[in-house]
Amino acid sequence: MANEGVIKFDFYCGDKSAIIPDALFDKINPVRNKLAETGLIGQYPGGLSYGNISIRNENPGHFYITASGTGKTKKTGKKHYVKIISCDIEKNFCKYGGQGLPSSETLTHYIIYKLFSDAEAVIHVHSNELWGYLKDKVPSTSKSAGYGTVEMVKEITELYEKGELQKDKLLVMEGHEGGIISFGSNILEALENLPNI
């Protein structure tokens, strides 16, 4: 897990004062903290954080996501979210705002919002048990696609184009052990799409 938690894209902070609005924070934060309580978002014994959650802003293309390294925080506040202003897949680049750094999974969240215009929330959790259970039951990205990479974005796009993501709104990251992504038209649907929560 030496490479876990590393941000694999270039980024630039365009607005350090950006903060998640109350209405979005009130939707996302209880779900985020519930996931932390159950261990689906958290911290490994070595100190690395895992898991993240995001919610779409009213402005098309913008969304708020838990900042890098916040998995270790049991109860998050507004300062633990950053605003994603734009992403450029070809350039492997993200422009953001806020006090923290963008999650290493920002590009994965971005492509789901781009592909699914009705998606309001994306959740990325870790559970080896759930990952093993789902591996042969739901769409999976290939073993060669690392987390937070352009390759992962391309894999998810391919699954979408094959029509494999539209039903369950759930996928397993084969090359990111324990990694599972769910999404939905609202934050509660994204949560409900994860089995056994």
Molecular structure report:
This protein has a nine-stranded mixed beta sheet with strand order 1-7-6-5-4-8-11-10-9, sandwiched between helices. Strands 2-3 form a two-stranded antiparallel ribbon. The protein has helices spanning 22-37, 106-115, 128-134, 150-161, 187-192; strands at 10-15, 42-43, 49-50, 52-56, 63-66, 81-88, 93-97, 121-126, 140-141, 170-173, 179-184. The longest helix has 16 residues, at 22-37. The protein has a single domain, classed as L-fuculose-1-phosphate Aldolase. The relative contact order is 0.18. It is of the alpha+beta class and 197 residues long.
Give the oligomer, counting copies of the same chain as homo and different chains as hetero.
Answer: single chain
According to CATH, the fold-level topology is L-fuculose-1-phosphate Aldolase
Helix content: 25-40%
Average pLDDT metric: 92
- What order do the strands of the largest sheet run in, or round the barrel if closed? 1-7-6-5-4-8-11-10-9
CATH class annotation = Alpha Beta
| Total domain count | 1
The class by helix and strand makeup works out as alpha+beta
N-to-C SSE series?
EHEEEEEEHEHEHEEH
State the total count of DSSP E strands: 11
pLDDT below 50 for ≥5 consecutive residues: which ranges? none
The helix tally amounts to: 5
CATH superfamily (homologous) name: Class II aldolase/adducin N-terminal domain
Shape: globular
